[in-house]
Amino acid sequence: MIRRFARAFLALALCAPAPAGPAPSFSLKQLDGSLFRLDDHLKKQVIVLDFWATWCGPCTKSLKKLQELHEASPELLVLAVSIDDGRTLAQVAPYVQGRGFTFTVLLDPDGGVCRMFNPEGGVPTTVVIDRQGGVAYSHSGYLSGDERALVAAVAKLAR
Amino acid sequence: MAALAGLGARAGDARPFSLEATADLLFRHDLAATAPRSFGEPVERPGQFRQTLALVGGLGHWTGGATLWDVNFYQQDPNITLDRADAGLYKKYLKYESGPWTLQGGDFNAMLGRGLVLSVIQNAALLKDDTIDGSDARYRGGRLEVHGLGGTVTSGKRDQSWRVAALEAIWEWAADQRVGLRAATVQDGRTPAFGLPVGLRQCRSASLSGQASRAVSYYAELGWMNFRDQQPVPYPTPVDPRKGTGAYGNLSFHHGAWFLMAETKDYRNFDDALNNPPLADRDTEKNDLYDGSGRRVYLQHSFRQPDLTVFFSAGRYREETLEGQNVYGGFKLQDAFDRLDLSCTYGLRTVLYLEKRTDAALAWRFTPLWSLELTLRDKRNRPPGSDPYSETDLTVQLARSPRFSVYLMQQRTTVPVFQATRLFNAGVRVNLPRGSYLDFSAGRLRGGEVCAGGQCVVLPPFEGWKLAAHLRY
User: What is the pTM of this model?
Assistant: First the structure.
């Protein structure tokens, strides 16, 4: 079993990354309690998804850059998906409203949607979905300057 | 992989076939498996070679996922009894989503309301990764949402299991005004050898939430719990588990740059092992369960130029019979002079004993792509009648976006009776396209939250070296 699995792993490690596959479908609640369905927006516009949490330091910087992108490119649909669970869910509103973020905030308290895009479940994780509904860009973690790659990926899709 | 995705694509289908694979490869060599341990270090520290392969796929309204894994504990402490090699299917799920319906089977996480009644979620701080193995159905129509689930939960160590069933209904009775009703049963299955009360727990809760006006929002939830003995323990337990109550509420006011929130919680004998009542503060991860209360006020003001957020929190808490305060405040400054990030939080907590905590970070960008970060975390406890216990972490990180980051960390621990110890850890993370990365670290870690490479993760104590590859396809 282990040998078979090792062979499968090696085969995966050696094969070239595939082009973007379609984004998995999901529906989540927004901060005001209303429901957001990804299917209602897919293939209509480029979508930027950012998974974050109030307790994650690098997420603050990532969200701030996301807000700049949201203001500079209003044609994009920017979704910030919080994975805060019941213990810190009450912190999400002050976090977002206090900083003046105006993008759409979704709540994923059990982290299920986050793991559909990043099985490791780490935050921040940023994903861009193109107009064909495919995952065109994916990045985990945030280092100062990472937004450049995100902006470049979005600009490429806008062409 | 590309060919597979292409073969599955169906012309005219709203959602063609998709498949995404994530492969994780970890080699962890613990030098200290036979060396003397210092205070606080765990017994179980095997060297291991672990592979996991997570697959997520979709077709039409269907989404599915599975994680395959195998592990080889090539080096073990004589006291542990882990199988040398093991492999299997770790997590799997199949989900159908169409219109107002979502149906799911397999392994999944779930949280009802704020977690008073049922909460089976990952908790990295407590190293918990439990899931419900069963089925889940959710209906979300105009003003009504109904959610039902059932299945089995098995703890990570496989020494405990529970059978659960739950139902939740939320009705929006007026614009932005919601009422919620929840019920759950938790039946003990397998229990640890040392013996805990075994039986059936029934939990119920009711909640009200919404916007009182444009500036004021609220959430209130009340819960009740009954316990029926099925195998009473032959000795007195510290609390009577038969009846419990739980309450959580918050009221917040937001106007311009100001945010004010009042929070309260009150739990009495309120623990069914699968609930996770909300905190009313930060850093009370292990103190929120079954018997405690808290009230606090949180105030925040944000300035735009410069980008500065100032916050303050003050609260009073009870944990069983002990009472005390938790007060903290601080600021976060970002992008000053387009180069500098600076943050600092200082807090005092006196619930169990005097605890002082400082959390400071400074980041300087040489160019938009090169940055240097310095992070200091300091925690000092003074238990009654004992010498102080302190933990000080200092991390220096040099990063070049988006390619790599290199860090060096020093952890200094001063424990009563024992001498102070200094642990050093260094690592490098190289980011690859499409969210893949390679990670190498070496040295000694006390364990806890480690922020490096642009991500914060909770790690167990460690001494040795570790190589991890995270590859996405």
Answer: 0.82
Could you say which of A18, A110, A141 has the minimum Cβ distance to residue B2? A18
- Dist. CA B78–CA A128, nearest whole Å: 48
Using CA atoms, how far apart are residues B125 and B285, in angstroms rounded to an integer?
8
Identity of the residue in A18, A90, A133 whose CB atom sits nearest the CB atom of B1: A18
**Dist CA A100 CA B241 (whole Å):** 45
d(CA B413, CA B298): 31
Cross-chain Cβ contact B119/A112 below 8 Å: no
* Dihedral (CA of B256, B257, B258, B264) sign: positive
Q: Is the ipTM, as predicted for this complex, more than 0.90? A: no
Nearest-CA residue of chain B relative to A139?
B435
> Which CB contacts under 8 angstroms, 24+ apart, belong to B381-389?
B381/B353, B381/B354, B381/B355, B382/B353, B382/B354, B382/B355, B383/B352, B383/B353, B384/B353, B386/B416, B387/B416, B387/B417, B388/B414, B388/B416, B389/B414, B389/B415, B389/B416
CB contact under 8 A, A133 and B399: no
- How far is Cα B123 from Cα A48, in angstroms, rounded to an integer? 26
Please tell me which of the candidates B332, B399, B429 has its beta carbon nearest to residue A144.
B399
In chain B, what are the domain boundaries?
A: 1-94
Q: pLDDT tens, B47-75?
A: 777 788 888 888 878 888 888 878 777 76
Optimal mutation site among A101, A114, A143, interface B, most CBs of chain B within 10 A = A143
